[in-house]
Amino acid sequence: MNSQIKTPWLKAIKVVPLDGFRLQVIFENGQEMRLSLEKLIQTRERYWRLKSPRYFRQAQIDTLGG
Fold this sequence. Notes:
The chain has helices at residues 38-43, 53-56; strands at residues 12-18, 22-27, 32-36. By secondary structure, it is of the alpha+beta class. A 3-stranded antiparallel sheet has the order 1-2-3. The radius of gyration is 13 Å and the shape is elongated. The termini are close together.
């Protein structure tokens, strides 16, 4: 994916895993957002791996933009 392509949405440039299955997302304009994924992870079987705090802490931005 070409990073020079303009899109109508902000590009996330950094993600910081927090306690309680939360993520702090930092965008290219400096805006920050905290997302709670606890309910999603606890209620959806497909996210079973993320129930492990050790695995959840590996969250990061995909360098290819995918």
